[in-house]
What we know:
Layout: H1 2-20, E1 35-39, E2 42-45, H2 46-55, H3 65-91, H4 98-109, H5 114-124, H6 128-150, H7 157-166, E3 172-173, E4 176-184, H8 187-198, H9 203-210, E5 221-226, H10 232-238, E6 250-252, E7 255-265, E8 268-269, H11 272-302, E9 305-307
Helix pairs in contact: 3-6, 4-6, 7-11
Amino acid sequence: xxxxxxxxxxxxxxxxxxxxxxxxxxxxxxxxxxxxxxxxxxxxxxxxxxxxxxxxxxxxxxxxxxxxxxxxxxxxxxxxxxxxxxxxxxxxxxxxxxxxxxxxxxxxxxxxxxxxxxxxxxxxxxxxxxxxxxxxxxxxxxxxxxxxxxxxxxxxxxxxxxxxxxxxxxxxxxxxxxxxxxxxxxxxxxxxxxxxxxxxxxxxxxxxxxxxxxxxxxxxxxxxxxxxxxxxxxxxxxxxxxxxxxxxxxxxxxxxxxxxxxxxxxxxxxxxxxxxxxxxxxxxxxxxxxxxxxxxxxxxxxxxxxxxxxxx
Length: 312
């Protein structure tokens, strides 16, 4: 009987000891960010989207919930288009080599003094490797669009000539004058300066010393301009003034002016040959925009796009 009691007490002690022993909790499962977007098998998590979206906002900018949602929706469209481009690059086996990334990095790096580049990385809270990864992605986007969309485009001489004939008025170069001015606040000061000019004092030096206009730093030089580019009081004076002749005192809302015409250019019609390159670039730019939009619409139409809009 005593033996049974001892066994019972021993078992009870073991049970109580086991109950008192703190349980070892299982490690918390790692939190996985939900998938916000899938484009042709390419996935983007909500966390990645938020990190990228944050990079687009100016530091310290405060947004209302409505403003933030609107910007997020716009940014999501940009991300979808980017992923469509990258998926197409993957399908066509278009890639960017490490050497291309390094060359682009060196070109970009030259735009920054040493400290400023490091400061930029610190502000964005990214490492150099992360920045280079972004750079590689941008280069790939540019390459796929260039190879698939832009390179096949051509602008023929017939297109250029047709554009020129349809827009000849745009290639009329009107008569222009180059003039200097001195502008002061009072009529009395204006008359004093006009007297000094008539006695042969240097216009540019007097403009630099007395004129209220920002062009005083250039000796009052306004550069070349056509009728309508400047206030009416300017046009009424300088376009009737012979080269080298001083005007009288001219009043405007800015003060009292004295003008002198330095040069004249007669109105001319620019020839097709003179504007051929300009027209080519203009037409090519228009074709690029249109071709890219068509290509993007084709990618969207055939892509499988899944957005979990409830996460935004």
